[in-house]
Hints:
By secondary structure, this protein is of the alpha/beta class. 26% of the residues lie in helices and 13% in strands.
Amino acid sequence: MPRFVHVGQSLTSKVTNTTRKTVSVPVYVDEQGYVQNAGFVFKPIRALEHGALQGPRAIVLHRTVSSTARSSLNAFARGIGTHFLVDKDGTIYQTASLIQKTYHVGPIRSRCFDEGSCDAAEQSAVELLARRQAYREMHNREKAKPYPDRFPMNEDSVGIEVVAMYTEATRQWDPPTPGQSEAIALLARILKTQYSLTDADIYEHDRISRKTAGEGAGLYDRTDGVPVRFPPPVF
């Protein structure tokens, strides 16, 4: 017959043999394009994926114009959105595979024109397109250039959306919460490591495409990963 012993009377291992230990596990992107061991929440939205992603070669930062992650995830189901969504509390949702492109950038600006580095012929061509507001033609002209001679596009960049609202009356975006700031810095660090990117490969959406001013501002600082630049006040 089995003999039962009260727990308090049974022999146990020495405390030194039962001390909990923290085991480091590597963060990596699996063969399906999802980040493992980083604590992300996977919310795959197949409608976001539109073919093979090249690289990726860059990261583009966005704000959502929404107050909740749920409303943004619902909007993503229509087929336009980013690979990652950062909620107010810092939760990171991965919504698309990193081997698939998503539609999140739109027509890009002329990089040499914005940075004052076009040669005379290119300057003249871009000025003509700008006067005609032929932004799709300008995008197609830029698309023929290799990165980083041009800004990143849907085809070669990872998109990160941050849940935030825009106030029309003041023309101001919500600043990131502390949780969002930490999450963005973590996500940027992981992507830079996984794809051999640098801070020079991280872009604010409104700087590379024709979007509401300040949309990507103040989300990431190139020196240590925390926000420092915010949209200027409008009086």
